[in-house]
Every structure is written in structure tokens, then in C-alpha cells.
């Protein structure tokens, strides 16, 4: 499979900053993502309740209530524009019509606030990748594939401005690689199985978006590097594995852009900084305001290169201040105001570096999100001629950078973490250069995984 | 008395070869097979569990220890007399209907296995009927339910109701866990316990089965 993007979009680190992307996304309502302004991207989900045919009216009422709250806050704080992301819950992808109904309700409220108050907003719809579980027979045909594609089409035709997905091709292998810190298996799951899956899936999503005159936005390594990042954060696995995994994931996530996705890339894909460096695509990111959804070690550094600023997800529960989605919207809006004023006053680079340096010496994932480090490693990645080769290069270059940073005192890494850098380097050297041989070896070593589902044999 | 420290340390180090060698030496020295398991192999895993709890070992290191322990148990198990058992009880674990999250549940299952429990992992999106069938088929003492979504929490209640309706609720203890779960929720749906993490789940199972 041919790779694209053989050069970096950015060569000057001083141009590599939040709010501004080499390939901004110009939207019909006048919003320009990556055009100099950071926009809030609010994501919200349901409180404790079942989703069934009987409860669907209540489900829709919840979404309507949440959207009224966040849009009101957007108006009150005079945001220059905002994005709303709805990550559909599994029943709303298993039943595409329910996902379509959610899309209509959410977009209806957004339109109302645009008409009444002039609030500019854009809707990102993210169906669930339901291609897993006991009944799955094949990744590209059968009920699960049809449900994903039908939901995408329905969302696209009924109000979505952007399409995204947290795709999971190769995740079953990757889960095992994380539990066993098995770098070769991670390379296989991401650089071969995952990239091939992304190509097939994203070719289809790009076509759906084009058919409906909307935009294919991007994917994320949520099911992959976020799993290892959370595991590392809990000290279940070495944190350096999570950092290496993150950079390898950039190659997989970038396949969406190679297929025609234009951004903004998905918020939970922290590898988005590599995507921006290589392709110039604007990115949504999440950090400190996403603490409502999960803890992380990258709360500030993740904002340094963000073009949209997200809260990841928050359920509709009552807090003292307001309903939780409205509270999140307020936090995001104030962060974005601050970032945009810093830009207006000519302090964007200083703001970027304050955000970076407040995190990057404490955690390896935070370190490899440092803009200069991103450009250095990304420059190595694009030398690879295949996705497999790029994934291997990503791992090797990250190991080199982490070791150098620790030796130079730029990154705090304990002896145990350093020891694992050596172990991972050894594992990486054991991977053959021949992709076909590596694939055959991995298929033989993993007999319980049916890769025929991916048409890989 | 046989010195089990070498065997236990080999389990802690995850060194399967040394575990097999020392377990065989213990058997050759006519040590009671059950004592080899309890005082050598499981004693080593108890140290592993304690070190994992205080972040002194990573999950993959625990897995290596568990694999070494299992190899040792497999060697000794055929020599156990009738009625002696190599595990501390059986746990049925799964993610409830409508929820596809896997890894947190797998982690709990792994830690339970490492602590000497037999674990039957039913996977994700598991119906109440499937939990009932597994309880019956495996004579389980514990059913462990997992979920990650606010919209699947109530499936835990439905699952417990199914266990009641099909007459097996009194045969098992039900424990629950997952990101949105709280002790209050656990109490409200009639579960027997809730744990915040994998290590806590092991403690909870041990408490409930004793």
C-alpha cells in the first residue's frame, strides 16, 4: 500500500503552534479550523440510563437539554464559533436510525442558536466502530460493517458537518501487545493490520462525506495508544511503552488523511501532533478539561498545538455550577479565549512553550509531544517507504529521543523505565525488514486471531 | 523441612525453567504436592500480588510470574489426591450486554488467576442468560460484571435479576466494577460488592469466598 506525505508540512518549529495549521479547514458557515483561532469542541454523553426503543424519546430529550445548555453558554461567552461532537453510543450504531435521530435533534438545536443568536457551530458525528464481539464474521461485510456504514451515511445526510470514528482494526492484537509489552505485536497490529483496515474504512468514509457535501475529519488511536497511556499512567506498564506506542499510532491515524480526511483530527488522538507536523491537517486535542473523562499526564502540553480544544466527554449530570456539559463548555471557552488573546498579542509561541514546559519533563508521552521533538521524530517517520517501515522507524526514533532526553536531564525517567527502553530496542531489532515474512511470522505466532476477517492471509 | 524460598523467588522472577526444576526437586524429596503448590508456588504469587498493589511490578511482569506458577502447578497437579484442589474457587467474568469494553475486565481476570482463582472469561456484550449458563457449567462461586458506559450500568441490574429469575443467585456472589460504578450503585442494584481496581477485586473475591 503506497504511502503519501514524504516531507513534513512544517520545517520551522516557530510556525508550529496552536490555532494555526498549514492546511486549514474552511467551513461553509465561515469558521476556519486551523486559521488562527482555537475553537472549543464540546463532547457530551448520556447519564445512567438504558437506550432502548422505549427510552429513545428520553434519550433524545437528554441530548436536546445538553445542547441547549452548551449553546447557551457559547452565546453567553461570545465564542467565535464552536464544535459539538457526539460519539454515538453502541445502541445508536447497532440501530442506525437511532443515531440519525440523535443527529437531527442535536443539529436542530445548533441551528436554532445560529438563527436566534448568530452562534456559529459545527457538528462532528462519530459512530461507534462496532466491528467486534462474538458475532463478527468479517471486518468489511456483514451486519457490523453495514451498521457502521449505514450510521455514517445517515449522520452525513441529516446534519453532520464532520465524520469521525475511533476505528478498531487490529485492536484485539494490540490489546495483547499492551498487556505483554510486546513491541513486535504492536508494530504488526498498527503498521500492518491497522493501516490496511484504515485504508478500507476511510476510503468509504471519504466517499460518504463527498456524497453528502460534508467533511471527513479524522480518526484516533483511542483504542490503541490511549489504552497503553492509561495503563502507563496507572503504573501497570512502563510509561515509555505508551510513548513509543503513541508515535507508532501516528502512522496508522495518518492513513485517514492519506485517504482524504481533512481534519480536524479527533480530540483523543494525542498522536494528532504528528499528523499536523506531517500533513498540515488541523487537530482537535484534549487535556486538562478532559479530566472529567479520564486522568492524563499531558493536560497542558496537549493544548500547545491544538486547533480545537475538547473535553473528551462528559455525562449529563448536575454539578453545583450547572449541568456538567455546560460546565465543560464554560471551561473550554475560557481556555480558548486565553489562547486566542495570547495569539492576538503576539505571544503564541511563549504560550505554547509555557504549556509544553509545564508538562514535558514529567512523562515520556508529554515529552514526545514537545513541538521540536515532534518535528524531529516526524522527519524520520516520513523517510519510511511503507506503513510497516514507518511504524518501525517511529518506534526506533522515539526510543532514541527518550533515551537522549533522559541522559540530558530533560525528562525524568526512573531506572526501571530506562531498563525497558533497552528491552524495547532489543525487541525492535528482532523484527525483520521483510513485511511479508514478518506478517507470516505473526500469523503463525497468533493462531487464535482470525486475520482472514481482514482478508490478510 | 523443604526450603521453598528458591521456588517462590523463581515464581516472583517469572523464571519458568527454574520453577519447574525446583518443583521437581521438591517432589523428588517427597514433599507433599499440595504443600509445593501452597507454600512454594502460591506463596511466590502472593508476594507478586503485594508488589503489584504498591506499583512495584508491571502487569507483564505479573503475567510472567503467573505463567511460571501455572507451569509449576501443571507439573504438580496430577499428584494431588482426590478432593485436593489447585485453585481457590471459580470466577465467571464478563462485560455486560451492550458494552464492548474489554481490557479492564481482562485485567481483573488476570489478577484473579494470578491469585490462584480459576477464571472463566465470557468476553464482552454478555447476556444474563450466558452468565447463568456459565455459573451452572462451572460451579462458580463468583460472578464479576464489568461495564464502562453510563448507558450499560443498568444492564448489571438486569443481569442480577436474571440470576435471580433462573434460580442461581443464591449460589454465587456478584461483584461489579468499571469506570462509572460506585459503592452506592452497587448497593442499589443488590450486588455483593464493588472494587475500584484489579487489586481491590482480588481482595473482594477473597473476602467473599471466605
Q: Could you walk me through the main structural features you see in this protein, from its secondary elements to its overall organization?
A:
The complex is a heterodimer of chains A (457) and B (210). Chain A has 457 residues and is of the alpha/beta class. Chain A has a single domain (13-448), classed as Phosphoenolpyruvate-binding domains (TIM Barrel). Chain A is built from 16 helices and ten strands. Chain A has helices at 56-76, 91-94, 96-117, 143-157, 171-179, 183-211, 225-233, 239-259, 272-279, 324-344, 348-357, 364-367, 371-381, 387-407, 415-429, 435-445; strands spanning 20-26, 32-35, 39-45, 82-87, 121-126, 162-164, 215-218, 284-286, 308-310, 314-315. In chain A, strands 3, 4, 5, 6, 7, 8, 9 and 10 form an eight-stranded parallel beta sheet that branches. A two-stranded antiparallel ribbon of chain A has the order 1-2. In chain A, helix 4 (143-157) links the parallel strand 5 (121-126) and strand 6. In chain A, helix 6 (183-211) packs parallel to helix 8 (239-259), helix 8 packs antiparallel against helix 14 (387-407) and helix 14 (387-407) packs antiparallel against helix 15 (415-429). Chain B has helices spanning 5-13, 16-28, 33-53, 59-76, 103-114, 128-138, 153-165, 183-189, 198-209; strands at 90-95, 118-121, 142-146, 173-177, 193-194. By secondary structure, chain B is α/β, with parallel strands linked by helices. Chain B has a five-stranded parallel beta sheet with strand order 2-1-3-4-5, with helices on both faces. In chain B, helix 3 runs antiparallel to helix 4. Chain B has two domains: 5-79, Methyltransferase, Methionine Synthase (B12-binding Domains), Chain A, domain 1 (Orthogonal Bundle); 90-209, Rossmann fold, CATH 3.40.50. Chain B is elongated. Chain A binds chain B through residues 45-51, 89-91, 128, 130, 132-134, 175, 178-181, 227, 231, 234-238, 315, and chain B through 55, 58-60, 63, 98-100, 102-103, 106-107, 110, 123-125, 149-151, 153-155, 180, 185, 197.
